[in-house]
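Let us work through a complete example step by step.
Step 1: write down the sequence.
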Amino acid sequence: MQQQVKLFVCLQENIHQLEKEIAEHLAQTPGAFLTSIRGIGIVLAAGVCAEIGDPAKQKSLNQLVSYAGIVPRIKPTGGVQGKTQVRKMAKRCNRILKDYVVRSGYHIGINGPEELKLDYKRRGAQRQHADFGMSRRYLRMAMCLMRTSQTYLPKSLRDIRTPKKERAHYYLLTWPTLRKKWKRIGALEFAFDKNMPLGQWRNIVQDLYGIELGL
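Step 2: predict the structure and record it as tokens.
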């Protein structure tokens, strides 16, 4: 029994070390901003980011969704007035990306921001494939966040006319959750270093909104 306990402790330490290394690699990329979405942890964000690569070099979103294998194939029949057949998802795709994206979509639907959870429930109630539908929405958000180097904001706060104090309140409200994700894995100071994407974002937000996002 003592040997089994030692083995378990050793495995736990190895897992923690690997997660920390993953976090430090992710922190150096725009993929770090994906962790600002409630329901998306560091491992899921890193998996999606690794398979997508440089967001600036990616092609259209439609091609990316197809590459991930989460868009059904549609075939029109009978000319202009004919019906449209919705076929199964294509088998040829990046299965690793598909796995990460679908799992991300599920986590967002269950634990994500309120507006996304409501969308997930709506899709399920309409007998749509909720996981795939949310996965496609997640990919759109992910590409936007990585390309603009911004954290997630609810739709109600994205309008440029939104008062600064409302955005400031949101950042203060969600900061503890984002901070906890990186602290738990032992990469908080590394991720929010002034030279890292999240560190640069933090400094800009503090200066712009006059708030303190303490480490």
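Step 3: interpret the result. Residues 17-209 form one domain.
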